[in-house]
Specification:
nucleotide-binding; magnesium ion binding; 202 residues; Shikimate kinase; five-stranded parallel sheet; 8 helices; alpha/beta; Rossmann fold; globular
Length: 202
């Protein structure tokens, strides 16, 4: 997913803005490198909402990088911190949340997200994710001789969980960030309009 020339926000009509203002939290799920943080920031700017990245919040609170947390606490320790953060962020009102790729592994995280958010699943193939993440040393689960195999296994395990919790599924592929965010905004608008029996007006 291209990150070139990303605008600060996306122009939307007053009608669309009014409809989208009725939404609760919007939470983004998907594998690492699927674009959750980049798309989330653009959605937040467009909808004038606060943005939170669960991984970034953990880093800020602990003063340690994700690889460092994995090194000293293991994945289980990180998942405990992540669960507490997801619960805290989910209790906020009308925010945009980018979750970590493994957040859906815990049922309590899925329940919290589903209860207080409209959940968007950014779906991407393992092959495309490898291209985006291969030089990123902040991905501890990929620091092994077969990162593609790791991504494929993650996708096999997590795809059903992402799909289960998602209200909307968007295939990011090689599309630009603006296209993905625009697609999400249009899909959200359509779902709200249909629920209210209104015409789908952009």
């Amino acid at each position: 997913m291209s990150k070139k020339r990303i605008p600060h926000s996306i122009p939307i009509s007053p009608t669309q803005q009014a409809l989208l203002s009725q939404l609760p939290n919007i939470s983004l799920v998907g594998l690492m490198g699927s674009g959750k943080s980049t798309v989330g920031r653009l959605l937040a700017a467009t909808l004038n909402r606060p943005f939170f990245d669960s991984d970034e919040e953990i880093i800020h609170r602990t003063g340690a990088s994700i690889p460092t947390i994995f090194e000293f606490e293991g994945e289980a320790g990180f998942r405990e911190r992540e669960a507490k953060m997801i619960q805290e962020l989910s209790e906020k009102k009308q925010v945009i949340i980018a979750t970590g790729g493994g957040a859906v592994l815990r049922e309590d995280n899925r329940t919290a997200l589903k209860k207080n958010s409209w959940v968007i699943y950014l779906s991407t193939t393992p092959e495309k994710l490898l291209v985006r993440t291969r030089f990123d040393r902040n991905r501890p689960l990929l620091q092994n001789p077969d990162p593609l195999g790791t991504l494929k296994k993650m996708h096999e395990i997590r795809h059903p969980l992402y799909s289960q919790v998602a209200d909307i599924i968007v295939t990011t592929g090689s599309g630009q960030v603006v296209q993905v965010a625009t697609h999400i905004l249009e899909a959200l608008t359509q779902k709200i309009a249909q629920a209210q029996g209104q015409p789908d007006t952009h």
